[in-house]
Amino acid sequence: MPPKRPGGPTSGKGVRKPPTTYTKTRAPSLQEVYMRSCAEMGLRPNSAFLNMLPEKGGVDYSSAILDLSRNYVGDKGIAPILSTLQRMPNVRALILSENGLRNHGVQLLCASAAQLPHLEFIDLSDNFISEGAAVALGKLLTENRHIKDIAFENTRIPVNWRVKMLNALEANRCQPPRPPSGRPTSARPTSARPTSARPTSAR
């Protein structure tokens, strides 16, 4: 009996393909974002800031105030905090008094804050900062007109720069707020400045 000839290629018709499975990507939590930034920079996370951040993914930092006062952060430690702050759109007041910041740390802060249209108040009191920080702050006030107040008591910022910054802040406060459409409105937003923050002084 002759051997059977092998059958021809099977048609693709009627052959069911296995169902495609889609894996939903989980949004990282703010704690994970911060810890990842620290790892990339070779830094140890600041425990106080870490504990303020939500543990669950997709959960925003809900407070309008981020208070890191009396917490040593330093020029290196501020970098991953600023990276995380880019994902915290509710923050309108940033308290960094007594953080061990120097001019370089403030320069990093200003470069980041220029991209934060929601930020209105920064407290840099009791940091060892001087003219280098003032130059960066002066530039920030022209780049981000939403910033209405900066506290800088007990710093080494020269008097002439204090006057310049106070004038720039006053000009920003006189600017009408702009909605997403870019059209000015007559309504003035409520200040996010915390009641516990000290008033800005040129002294």
UniProtKB/TrEMBL annotation:
GO terms for molecular function: GTPase activator activity; small GTPase binding. Residues 183-203 have a biased composition (Polar residues). Transmembrane segments: none annotated. The keyword Magnesium does not apply. One of its GO terms (biological process) is nucleocytoplasmic transport. Keywords: GTPase activation, Leucine-rich repeat, Repeat. Residues 1-23, 172-203 are annotated as: Disordered. GO terms for cellular component: cytosol; nucleus; perinuclear region of cytoplasm. Coiled coil: none annotated. This is Uncharacterized protein. It holds the Pfam family LRR_6.
